[in-house]
Amino acid sequence: MAIPININREHVIEAIQKIDIEGVPERRESTRFNLLYEGEYYPPKYVVSIANIFANGEEYSPSMFSGGDETNRFLSRLGFIIVENENDTIGNQNEGNLLSVPSLEPVKRSREYNLYDDSIRDRVVYESLFHARTRRWLDEHIIGLNPDESRGYQAMGILHFIGLKDKHKGIFKGLSIYEAVQLLEQQDSDFNLVIQSLYRFNNQIEKNQKLVEVIIDDIDSEKAEEESYYKDGSVKQYYGKRYERNPENRKKAIEIHGLSCVACGFNYEEVYGERGKDFIEVHHVKPLSTIGDEVVIDPKNDLVPVCSNCHRMIHRRKDNVLTVEELKVLLDSPIRGETVWIQK
Q1: Tens of pLDDT along 148-205?
Q2: pLDDT of 95-150, one tens digit each?
Q3: What's the predicted TM-score (pTM) here?
Q4: What is the 3-state secondary structure (H, E, C) of the chain?
Q5: Cβ(280)–Cβ(254) under 8 Å?
């Protein structure tokens, strides 16, 4: 018998996820080949057996089909990479033989390639190799041109200088960048420009993800200043923005402390003239122990004027709200950006 033809890529991925949780039985370990998926290795024949659970409701007996070429061809047609254990070579996506990525055919014309920076070139390369984008699409969505006018020539110039032609379009569809780079590094031909481009693109993705995490954390910290952010009993201390925003409290604090930031000395009127006159934020210096109950505020001892920048830095980490004095230590650091240890 043969491998059930209704097993698809999603079934295989579900099988891999099941194996990640349950592991591989000792007798089902691979002997020569492995399926490479997101940096991890799996025995191809066992993966197919488990995939049948999701396709047909039961594990497919290994006696019903053969490993090696049959299994490897089947998985390759679904877009998976097969690695030979002996030399860690990648399997063919078409016939189960060792895959050879079509060689690059670079041209000497570099005008379009040199016209754009790495961020543009790297996105063009990625979208072409992984999503089979047309050149017109690349000109419009990556480079920002009118495709009816550019006709895809700018993207074509970038790709052709590197050596990427139509035969390379979409070749890595369904693969991760990590898997594609591994594949390219196994080739005899020089794919260095492509590999460098994919590395840069992947690094940019990671930087963007980290930036999103920082932004989310900042927003979370801003919410932590709002009493409505906390549910009953979820926090013992918070900083009372309600009191910072109270016009009477702010007026009294300014009358006592003035309009210059107590941390950095910034004065809005001195910088912005009439538009900045009488403007300053105030910071509640002591954490409050209750939420909802009214607290008597002493503008002299509880509130201080701070500029927007300093106020944001004070509250930027909700689990480590700085005191004004601690912020001054950071500002007084002889080398800006130098690590300053603040003992709590």
Answers
A1: 999 999 999 999 999 999 988 888 887 888 888 888 887 777 899 999 999 999 998 8
A2: 334 455 788 999 999 999 999 999 999 999 999 999 999 999 999 999 999 989 99
A3: 0.47
A4: CCCCCCCCHHHHHHHHHHHHHHCCCHHHCCCCEEEEECCEEECHHHHHHHHHHHHHCCCCCHHHCCCCHHHHHHHHHCCCEEEECCCCEEECCCCCCECCCCCCCCCCCCHHHHHCCHHHHHHHHHHHHHHCCCHHHHHHHHHCCCHHHHCCHHHHHHHHHHCCCHHHCCCCCCCCHHHHHHHHHCCCCCCHHHHHHHHHHHHHHHHHHHHHHHHHHHHHHHHCCCHHHCCCCCCCCECCHHHHHCHHHHHHHHHHHCCECCCCCCEHHHHHHHHHCCCCEEEECCCECCCCCCCCCCHHHHEEEECHHHHHHHHCCCCCCCCHHHHHHHHCCCCCCCCCCCCC
A5: yes
Residue 283 phi, psi (nearest 5): -120, 130
Q: Give the count of alpha carbons within 13 A of 189, CB side only.
A: 17
Nearest to 283 by CA among 269, 262, 264: 262
Written as six digits, the tokens of 15 are 């099988």
What's the chain's Rg over C-alpha atoms? 30
The dihedral built from the CA positions of residue 209, 211, 217 and 220, taken in this order, carries a sign that is negative
